[in-house]
Design goal:
Length: 70
């Protein structure tokens, strides 16, 4: 089984959302991207920025709890 970068980003986004919550996970990803960019790693920063976008995206097939549906 081969996992490409897009798959890895989706997996990491799902784990991050679950572990830290959507807002905190996005903040952590953007902070890492900023650190990498400051260190000159623009390719690495771009990957972490893609992760932040994926974290923000709604998880497909996931239903909201009944209390939040309205």
């Amino acid at each position: 089984m081969h996992i490409d970068l897009s798959d890895a980003i989706k997996i990491h986004a799902r784990v991050s959302r679950t572990r830290f919550g959507r807002a905190a996970a996005k903040k952590r990803a953007l902070k890492t991207a900023q650190s990498l960019r400051a260190a000159g790693d623009h390719a690495g920063a771009a990957v972490w920025e893609r992760l932040a976008v994926e974290i923000e995206a709604a998880e497909p097939g996931k239903l909201r709890p009944a209390s939040k549906r309205r």
